[in-house]
Design goal:
heterodimer; A: mainly beta; 10-stranded parallel beta sheet; B: mainly beta; 4-stranded antiparallel beta sheet; two-stranded antiparallel ribbon; 8 strands; rod-shaped
Amino acid sequence: MTVTITVAAHDSLGAAATASVVATQAAAGAFSDADKPTAANRPTVSGNTLTWVGPLGGGANNGSPVQQTRVLTASGSVDTPANGSIVEGKLITGSIWIQGSNITIRQCVIYNTTDLITIFTGSSNIIIEDCLFYGAGLGQASGSRAMPIYDTGNLTVRRCHSHNSGQHILEFVNGGPLAGAVHTFSDNYFHDVQDSSPNLSHYDVSYYGGGMGGKIVYEHNYFVENLYNQTSTIFIESYFGAIGTFTIDSNWLSGGGGTLYIRNTNHGNPDPTKVFVTNNKMGNYQQGFVASIDGTVTHSGNVDINTGASIDSQI
Amino acid sequence: MSTITITGTVTDSAGASGSYSVVVTLDSFTLSAVVTPAVAPAGTTRTLTVTPTGGTAPFTYATPTATGLTFTPVSANSWTFVY
């Protein structure tokens, strides 16, 4: 469905001109490559200046995003910010350790050669937005993560950019989201999983080993895993416990041995039944769109990232 | 803008002549319009921006028109709308 918009103007001498442009409503569930999260619209840093595209003042994606810049203040590690605090505008050489509630990390750059942002057990209502957190690639400590997330309450990570930051960008530890909690990741650009030990058995943009029964939502992110050809862009398994609700909707996903890897690790936990994979554009990097899938995965509207052809028959 | 050059010759009663030349400029400009995002789900807030090329500033813009849409000004040449 489209609409044509016409606008007219005249100049100071009376000459007139008109222009027309078409706006299109995408089909239900579809989304456009025009606003794919990339380095062009997610946070980047030059010197001590952060540039990003997002709503004025941060917050949810309400209204029109605009390109913004901010001069950051140099800082060391941020250790356990107080409940209810906002940490913003910092150029951090070091890490952030969070163990609290109602904490926002906004418009910061975090660089370190080990874990970057750790969200410890019991934290809740944490928001991380418009941040760049990155590591040293081959100089990164073996097995480190951009964001290890322990058994925690609600968490929102939006419009962030992470790269070269360890074995995993996201790793859910101790079961991840608690029962009743939701961890939502939206509009993020995560790419280039890399550390100093390229022979480790797994490199994933996201690793979730099951556990606490909470919900994880990935929506409108661009996840790319293309350095070590393993293991997957999103790896979900029941190693530590049952797999909770996992919604993967309207993302660009590419890389790894298989872009999706969803399995029952046979540790006495049930097959996954609450994984939803919908409306994604997925790459076929090495072994296919899917490394393997156990249990029941609900899927629809998924297409080849390059051709647009449906790939639901392969999920 | 396009121009036209007018030339002519004038001769006096004693037979002397001179010529003249003058350039006339036709004021005109073109207008381009961009919607961001152009393709998005229904209900998305979008931005329309129009840009003139040529002409003589300042420019005056009419409120855009489209069936069923309401435009909110952001600047002289930019509006938001929901579609």
